[in-house]
């Protein structure tokens, strides 16, 4: 016990000497001295005993406190020891990682980075309606249809079916895949449509049609990939027409009922073209009175919907739409998807890549029952296929050629042309073939400049790009399609899916950054079995990576690779890395970590994030 903590002796307080008085409250009776001494002694003795007890208690308390302190001290020491160990461990792990990193080759590091990016893409929200996601709705069976292939085709052996697919270079994935059918008549297509197709010289199905139509007729979800100009439109429209025809025959549609199905397109021009095709086929179907009349609505921005009130006033069978206007109409309840059971996306990679993904989800949320979903495109990188497949039910993948490969019927010529010499050289190039010719540039101002220059030089040219009004765009397409104009100068808007008659020559004035866009642009020629030429201008302004994509694409298609392209080395080859194509855009000359499409998507995402923060955004 330390002296400072020793209990202080209590001083005995002596009472002040009283002033005695009998009636005083403080009166104390007299007690003899001996008696008082004894009482004091007894008191002192008892005080001593109490103070001993106190001392013992205090001592015990102090011992407890000391023990507590020691325990606390030990805890502190232990914690510090642990922290030191963790720190050392962290330092060790860090230096081990640094050592491992140093040992890793550049290729391994790049592979790791690619895997991280891929994992981030794979974590994207499933492509399904929010309602389905929220309710956890998951269908396990494909949509039931009454269609079946003819008996003699059903009885074919697996080997026969495999050989047939090999003959047409068709690759399929999925289970219980319906067999390919080589003749339209065996697909049980109504006679009036067969007659109409024949009148358009469509007599036997193309590979995507002979495998894709039986798959779609069977009610199966599918991803259809085939070259530009290989007849995908018929492959996804015919099943919808047949479905609508069957529904109408069962119970005729009245005002406010329908549609049975919808075709979604990424551009107004493509939607208009698909709409016109469907109109032609449905009119042919009902012409002889044997089959019912079907009503189709075109639902795109930039047009007045009141012009189509005659369609809206009847039952609606088919809708062809661009996403923005379709969402608008559904939100305004101009029609519903309560009984809609067919959803097809043309140029589907564009629809579900980052730009349109949320719109598609939004559209899906208007479906109230199970649907058949089909995705078609000429370009569909593996990652988009995988992403889409998770959202389909027992999907069948039908692939004709490599997804993203160029159409082999197009002769591809790549020329080095200095920026300042392009206009003059363009005039020279126009002499190569007879019209019609399409000239592509992804820059709207450049599109206008080229048209102006050509007009000045006396060339009948029209122009189309996203900043033109809908009337201007329609006029350009109409006059070019009709042959009134020889040249159409276009931005990317006109590249995907548009089917112009017999384009002789496509001139790519400025090479697009994404090789998929190039594939779609050259694909405006060499359609439905005919041949065409594509001339592409490149120069110092063309990114090296784009040139590498182009070089590999030319090699794949067995085309002549010009010497200046041959000299471009692939940095991945120098590092001993793999030369796999990019899983995001399908480009063969780069990996995922420097994919221009991904960069562009990220830029767009950041811009939309910024505009949302600024209170902008929306449609
Ligand atoms: N079986 C066929 N035989 C001959 N021509 C056909 C056949 N099917 C379709 N066509 C014609 O081929 C042309 C191209 O068809 P379509 O526009 O459907 O091609 P696509 O594969 O969708 O091309 P893109 O990828 O560029 O959109 C059209 O003019 C169409 O009439």
Automatic annotation (TrEMBL):
It comes from Jaapia argillacea MUCL 33604. This is RNA helicase. GO terms for molecular function: ATP binding; hydrolase activity; RNA binding; RNA helicase activity; zinc ion binding. Its EC number is 3.6.4.13. Residues 182-210 form the DEAD-box RNA helicase Q domain. Keywords: ATP-binding, Helicase, Hydrolase, Metal-binding, Nucleotide-binding, RNA-binding, Zinc, Zinc-finger. One of its GO terms (cellular component) is cytoplasm. Residues 409-572 form the Helicase C-terminal domain. It is an enzyme of class 3 (hydrolase).
């Amino acid at each position: 016990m330390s002296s400072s903590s020793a209990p202080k002796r209590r001083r005995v307080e002596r009472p002040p000497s009283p002033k005695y008085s009998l009636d005083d409250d403080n009166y104390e009776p007299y007690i003899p001295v001996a008696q008082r001494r004894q009482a004091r002694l007894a008191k002192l003795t008892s005080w001593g005993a109490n103070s001993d007890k106190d001392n013992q208690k205090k001592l015990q308390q102090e011992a407890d406190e000391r023990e507590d302190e020691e325990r606390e001290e030990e805890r502190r020491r232990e914690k510090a020891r642990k922290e030191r160990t963790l720190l050392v461990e962290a330092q060790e792990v860090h230096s081990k990682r640094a050592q491992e990193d140093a040992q890793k080759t550049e290729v391994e590091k790049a592979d790791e980075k690619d895997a991280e990016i891929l994992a981030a893409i794979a974590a994207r929200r499933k492509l399904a309606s929010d309602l389905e996601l929220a309710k956890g709705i998951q269908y396990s069976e494909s949509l039931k249809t009454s269609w079946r292939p003819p008996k003699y085709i059903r009885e074919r052996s697996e080997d026969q079916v495999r050989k047939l697919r090999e003959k047409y270079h068709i690759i399929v994935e999925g289970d219980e895949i319906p067999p390919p059918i080589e003749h339209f008549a065996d697909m049980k297509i109504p006679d009036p449509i067969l007659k109409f197709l024949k009148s358009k010289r469509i007599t036997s199905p193309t590979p995507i049609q002979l495998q894709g139509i039986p798959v779609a007729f069977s009610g199966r979800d599918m991803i259809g990939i085939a070259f530009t100009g290989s007849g995908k439109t018929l492959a996804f429209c015919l099943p919808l027409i047949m479905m609508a025809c069957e529904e109408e025959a069962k119970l005729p549609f009245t005002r406010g009922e329908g549609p049975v199905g919808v075709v979604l397109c990424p551009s107004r021009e493509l939607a208009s073209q698909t709409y016109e095709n469907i109109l032609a086929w449905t009119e042919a179907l009902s012409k002889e009175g044997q089959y019912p009349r079907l009503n189709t609505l075109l639902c795109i921005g930039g047009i007045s919907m009141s012009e189509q009130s005659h369609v809206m006033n009847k039952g609606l069978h088919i809708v062809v739409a661009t996403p923005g206007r379709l969402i608008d109409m559904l939100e305004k309840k101009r029609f519903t998807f309560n009984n809609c059971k067919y959803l097809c996306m043309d140029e589907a990679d564009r629809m579900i890549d980052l730009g349109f993904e949320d719109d598609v989800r939004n559209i899906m949320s208007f479906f109230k029952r199970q649907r058949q979903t089909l995705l078609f495109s000429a370009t569909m990188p593996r990652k988009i296929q995988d992403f889409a497949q998770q959202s389909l039910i027992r999907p069948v993948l039908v692939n004709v050629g490599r997804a993203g490969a160029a159409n082999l019927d197009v002769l591809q010529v790549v020329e080095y042309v200095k920026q300042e010499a392009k206009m003059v050289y363009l005039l020279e190039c126009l002499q190569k073939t007879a019209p019609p010719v399409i000239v592509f540039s992804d820059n709207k101002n450049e599109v206008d400049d080229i048209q102006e220059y050509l007009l000045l030089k006396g060339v009948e040219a029209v122009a189309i790009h996203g900043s033109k009004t809908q009337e201007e765009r329609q006029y350009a397409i109409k006059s070019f399609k009709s042959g009134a104009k020889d040249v159409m100068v276009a931005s990317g808007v006109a590249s995907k899916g548009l089917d112009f008659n017999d384009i002789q020559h496509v001139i790519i004035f400025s090479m697009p950054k994404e090789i998929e866009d190039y594939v779609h642009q050259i694909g405006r020629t060499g359609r439905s079995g005919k041949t065409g030429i594509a001339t592409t201008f490149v120069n110092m302004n063309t990114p090296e990576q784009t040139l590498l994509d182009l070089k590999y694409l030319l090699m794949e298609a067995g085309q002549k690779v010009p010497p200046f392209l041959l000299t471009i080395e692939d940095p991945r080859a120098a590092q001993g890395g793999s030369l796999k194509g990019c899983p995001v855009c399908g480009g063969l000359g780069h990996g995922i970590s420097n994919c221009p499409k991904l960069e562009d998507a990220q830029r767009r995402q950041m811009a939309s994030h910024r505009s949302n923060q600024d209170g902008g955004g929306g449609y």
